[in-house]
Amino acid sequence: MKRKGIKNLIIDFGGVLIDLDRDRCIRNFEQLGVADFGDLIDPYRQQGFFMELEKGLITASEFRNIIRDRSNKLFTDKQIDAAWNSFLVGIPTYKLDLLLKLREHYVVYLLSNTNIIHWKWSCANTFPHKGFRVEDYFEKMFLSFELHQAKPEKDMFETLLAETGIVPEETFFIDDAPANCQTAQSLGISTYTPEAGEDWGHLFK
Questions:
Q1: pLDDT tens string 78-90
Q2: In what order do the strands lie in the sheet with 140-143?
């Protein structure tokens, strides 16, 4: 289970822990009448007003109003949130069990580009497992919408390093976006880029 010389793990959320369905999300937004939605939503990094939501630069209410303006229809908050949350599939329970086991050997952090709508849904629907809650899986969580920072910019990683005091050379980062891993490597952090849906638990066997 223990990787040589590694004391800390930094783990991404989307695509690493939680499975994603971009095509389903696009279809659902197109049904709401949002044009060019596929050009704005990305598996690794959002664009336009979606990135503003990810960075916490606009509120959830402002985001929903933009959707209404673009579609020129008065959809409810519930309809918009359902379409947006359809991007998220779920966290396989074996990954939740793995996180709990990893915490016995490492200090585990979450570093994620995410937004308040996705995060609230995930906390309520994907992390509860065997009586555990999201707070039980990580020493601390670094979320883009709270920090007003986003990967792959270096400042988000520097915030984590400054607030935790961890040593980069003793840290291992798992993220499905190559650009994010490249930034981490530039700071001295070793990395791994899993494929979509991969069981990356083999890294610790």
A1: 999 999 999 999 9
A2: 140-143, 107-112, 8-11, 171-174, 190-192
